[in-house]
Structures are given as structure tokens and as C-alpha cells.
């Protein structure tokens, strides 16, 4: 059973086999798997709790509808972990509230249909055999809330959403790791053999393996050892619209307008809404408490959603300011929009697990890969997301219209 505590200088662990920096979903899942592999694991988190930063800003959704092999290789087993979570963590009855309501990517642009059909065919090749292309009439019959203009969609029933907080806490609880809160890693220490420890605000922990899972701050950890990681944090906002279950279809899937990038899903009688704004600039890493949300964002998103989900017009008409709340977090993009996982050749013993815009759905398997790379269970050359792939020219930006949701 994992222990979660705020250490004092006097009881900071002196050594560990692995130190994980960052207690979001990615770091906690990594600590789960490294500790399950028998490695003495310490996770260091600067905040008062686990999963309080980007992870808490997420829409908590998961999907296997990817066209990049590595994304499928992370997403599909993660969904199996979600479906068997209590068994995976060894805590009978533990519930992460998985809802397989599906992901619906829809369009009213007939020119997109060939690409969408090709995406489904590619998913089938990659082993995601239960995604479907739906003609417009089928979409409208199956999901009567969509606009008459919808001409096609891709859909997978086994995609859906869950409770991210419970996911993080469950991995921590089911691990054999130690989670140190209110403690910041201020430096990664090295000697002639590579990583030798981490310096924290409460003292030093000696170790030969460090995992950088610091989310938007992962680039700062790289800089501690003079490595520039190709990471770009970009603010993303999400709106919760309070209950109006008589207007908002509560059985709907996670629904994306592929033309303008707006999305929504039902949530406790209301809805979660978002929009991947292509004009949002790359920013510096920011703690979510200090990340501003735009006051006008709900109006923009509601307008964009109303196009292909006309019931939002009625929702908007009845809305009071107190019915909406907007929060912001950061997606972290890499040059191919896929995470960085594995060791950094510049510093033996330093591993990264970062660069996520979809870390809730990918993190559970990514944590396992990281543990397997540390123990040697996975060979570096079998890891398509190794950080050296850009220098090697061995990468491809895929996904096109399916990325970012
Ligand atoms: C609006 C929005 C919607 C999203 N929707 C989804 C979705 O539906 N599905 C999905 O899969 N993903 C979604 N995401 C993305 C997802 O939330 C992130 O990819 C994921 O949470 C990243 O997890 P992480 O552990 O890498 O980062 P974080 O959760 O940010 O964790 C990193 C941790 O590192 C700690 N840290 C940093 N530096 C240090 C240091 N020096 N010392 C100690 N601790 C440190 C931080 O305090 C933080 O807790 C969404 C994101 C946003 C913003």
C-alpha cells in the first residue's frame, strides 16, 4: 500500500531506486508500475495533493480512436486497465466510474468524409477494430440531438470517460511507493556515472534513476541538467455548464465538431464543454491556480457548439452567469504531438515521461513502459516514443483532424 505524506527534513528518505518528479496522473502511474516491479520508489510532488494540477483540469475522457501506432499502443491497454482497475491495483471494489458512452467525431463538411473513412480503416489495421464510420442519416438516427447538416461521423462505443481523481488516488493506494507532498525538486544531481540524486526543498535523496513527469514543468527539469526538451505548453480551457438535464441529452457520447474543434459531453445533469483554439499561443509553464480563464470563453464555445448541436441554443438562452464555470490547464505538445517516454542519452539514469495533451488516457500504459524501460523489460529500440526520435528523424506527425480532443 502506498504512503502519502508531507515529509520533514529529518524523515526524508535518504535513498531510492527511483525518484519520480511530479504527482499528476503520469507520475503516479509511473510510480505504481516501478514500485510493482520491485523498485524502491519515491515520488516528489510540490503541491499539497496528488493530481491537483493539469490532471485536475482534464475532461477525463479516453479513446482508442487514434491513427498513430504508438498512440494506439498506449491508449488501448490503458482502457483495459480502466475496465479492470480494482484488480490492477489490488483494491477490491475500487471504482473509477468508467462510462463507455463513446466518442463521436462529426462533420457537416462532405470533403472530410474520405479522410474520416481512411482514419477508421487505419484504426482497424492498428487493432482498434470496433470503431465505425457512420453516414449522416445513421448519425442523426442514433444521436437525434445532432443538426440535420451532419453528413458523417466516426464513432467508437468503448471510448468514454472516468473519474480522474479516483484514478490517481487508486494508483497511489495500490502502489508500494512513497509519495512526498509539499516538496519541490530544485535540482537533479549528477556525477561521472550519470544521475546521482535529487535535491529537494527538504533535503537530498540519492538515486541512480530519476523520472521527469513534471507535466508542463518537465522542460524546467530538463534544464536542471542542461537538456532542452522539445515541449510546448499551450493553455486549454474547459467550461462546466450546470444542470439542465431536460435540454442536455445525458446519454450522449463525447461529441466533437471536427470542423471547428469544439467538443462537449454530459456531466451530472449538465455538460462539460471545450474548444481547442488553434490561435492559442505557446506559453511558459504555469501552475493552474495562476492560469487565467477568459471570461468570454463560455460564450465562444457555446456558439461554436450550437452549429452542430442545436439544443445548445436553448441551453444558452436559459443560462445565468452562476450556471457556468471555466477552468484552464495546459496541453504540452511535442513536434509530433506524441509524448516523450524513455531515457535521455545525455544523462544516464534520467528518464522522461512527459509531453502530453492526453495524459489521463495514455498515462496508465506510459507509466508501465517507463518502468519496463528502467528494469530492462522493454528495450530502448522497441520504444517508438524515445526522446531521441526527433534527432534521428524517426517520427511522423499523424492524427490530423483527430488530434487534440
Ligand atoms: C482543458 C483540458 C482538458 C483535457 N482533457 C483531457 C481528456 O479528456 N483526456 C485526457 O487524457 N487528457 C486531457 N487533458 C490533458 C491531461 O489533463 C494532461 O495530459 C495530464 O493531466 C498530464 O498529466 P501530468 O501528470 O503529465 O501533469 P500534471 O497533472 O500537471 O502533473 C505534473 C505534476 O508535477 C509537479 N511538479 C512540477 N515540477 C515539480 C518539481 N520541480 N518538483 C516537484 N513536483 C513538481 C506539479 O506540481 C504537478 O502536480 C486535458 C487538459 C486540459 C487542460
Protein described:
This protein has twelve helices and 20 strands. With 405 residues, it is α/β, with parallel strands linked by helices. The protein has two domains: 193 residues, FAD/NAD(P)-binding domain, CATH 3.50.50; 158 residues, D-Amino Acid Oxidase, Chain A, domain 2 (2-Layer Sandwich). The strands form four sheets. It has an eight-stranded mixed sheet with strand order 6-7-5-15-16-17-14-18. Helix 9 runs antiparallel to helix 10. Flavin-adenine dinucleotide binds next to helix 1, helix 2, strand 14, strand 18 and helix 11.
Structural class: alpha/beta
Binned, the helix content reads 25-40%
Shape: globular
Query: What is the CATH architecture annotation of the largest domain?
Result: 3-Layer(bba) Sandwich
Number of helices: 12
Percentage of residues in DSSP E strands: 15-25%
Distance linking N and C termini? 34 Å
Key phrases:
405 residues; alpha/beta; FAD/NAD(P)-binding domain; 2 domains; 8-stranded mixed beta sheet; 7-stranded mixed beta sheet; 12 helices; 24% strand; binds flavin-adenine dinucleotide
What's a concise summary of this model?
This protein has 405 residues and is α/β, with parallel strands linked by helices. Helix content is 28%, strand content 24%.
List the helices and strands and how they pair.
Blueprint: E1 3-5, E2 18-21, H1 25-36, E3 41-44, H2 54-57, E4 61-62, H3 69-83, H4 85-89, E5 103-107, H5 113-125, E6 132-135, H6 136-142, E7 152-156, E8 160-161, H7 164-174, E9 178-180, E10 185-191, E11 194-200, E12 203-206, E13 210-212, H8 218-224, E14 232-241, E15 254-257, E16 262-267, E17 270-275, H9 297-306, H10 311-317, E18 324-333, E19 340-343, E20 350-354, H11 359-375, H12 389-392
Parallel strand pairs: 1-9, 2-3, 2-13, 3-9, 5-15, 13-20
Antiparallel strand pairs: 4-8, 5-7, 6-7, 10-11, 11-12, 14-17, 14-18, 15-16, 16-17, 19-20
Helix pairs in contact: 1-7, 1-11, 3-11, 9-10
The chain binds flavin-adenine dinucleotide.
Amino acid at each position: 500500500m502506498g504512503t502519502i505524506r508531507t515529509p520533514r527534513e529529518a524523515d526524508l528518505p535518504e535513498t531510492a531506486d527511483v525518484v519520480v518528479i511530479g504527482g499528476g496522473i503520469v507520475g503516479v502511474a509511473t510510480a505504481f508500475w516501478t514500485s510493482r516491479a520491485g523498485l524502491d520508489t519515491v515520488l516528489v510532488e510540490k503541491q499539497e495533493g496528488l493530481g491537483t494540477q493539469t490532471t485536475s483540469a482534464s475532461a477525463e475522457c479516453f479513446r482508442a480512436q487514434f491513427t498513430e501506432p504508438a498512440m494506439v499502443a498506449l491508449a488501448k491497454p490503458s482502457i483495459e486497465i480502466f475496465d479492470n482497475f480494482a484488480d490492477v491495483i489490488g483494491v477490491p471494489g475500487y471504482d473509477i466510474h468508467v462510462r463507455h458512452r463513446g466518442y463521436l467525431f462529426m462533420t457537416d463538411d462532405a470533403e472530410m468524409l474520405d479522410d474520416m473513412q481512411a482514419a477508421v480503416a487505419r484504426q482497424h489495421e492498428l487493432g482498434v477494430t470496433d470503431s465505425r464510420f457512420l453516414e449522416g442519416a445513421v448519425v442523426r438516427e442514433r444521436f437525434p440531438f445532432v443538426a440535420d447538416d451532419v453528413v458523417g461521423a466516426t464513432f467508437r462505443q468503448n471510448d468514454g470517460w472516468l473519474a480522474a481523481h479516483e484514478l490517481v488516488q487508486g494508483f497511489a493506494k495500490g502502489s508500494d511507493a512513497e509519495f512526498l507532498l509539499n516538496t519541490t525538486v530544485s535540482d537533479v544531481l549528477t556525477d561521472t556515472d550519470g544521475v546521482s540524486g535529487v535535491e529537494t526543498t527538504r533535503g537530498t535523496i540519492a538515486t541512480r534513476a530519476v523520472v521527469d513527469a513534471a507535466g508542463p514543468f518537465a522542460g524546467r527539469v530538463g534544464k536542471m541538467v542542461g537538456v532542452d526538451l522539445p515541449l510546448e505548453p499551450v493553455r486549454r480551457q474547459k467550461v462546466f455548464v450546470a444542470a439542465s438535464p431536460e435540454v442536455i441529452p445525458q446519454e450522449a457520447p463525447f461529441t466533437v465538431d471536427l470542423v471547428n474543434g469544439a467538443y462537449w459531453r454530459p456531466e451530472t445533469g449538465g455538460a462539460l464543454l471545450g474548444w481547442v483554439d488553434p490561435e492559442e499561443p505557446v506559453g511558459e509553464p504555469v501552475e493552474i491556480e495562476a492560469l487565467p480563464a477568459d471570461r468570454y470563453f463560455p460564450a465562444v464555445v457555446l456558439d461554436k457548439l450550437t452549429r452542430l448541436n442545436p439544443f445548445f441554443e436553448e441551453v444558452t438562452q436559459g443560462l445565468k452567469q452562476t450556471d457556468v464555470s471555466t477552468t484552464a490547464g495546459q496541453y504540452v505538445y511535442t513536434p509530433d504531438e506524441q509524448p516523450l517516454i524513455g531515457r535521455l542519452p545525455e544523462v544516464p539514469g534520467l528518464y522522461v515521461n512527459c509531453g502530453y495533451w492526453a495524459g489521463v488516457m495514455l498515462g496508465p500504459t506510459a507509466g508501465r513502459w517507463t518502468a519496463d524501460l528502467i528494469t530492462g523489460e522493454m528495450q530502448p529500440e522497441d520504444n517508438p516514443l524515445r526522446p531521441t526520435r526527433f534527432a534521428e528523424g524517426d517520427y511522423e506527425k499523424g492524427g490530423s483532424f483527430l488530434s487534440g480532443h
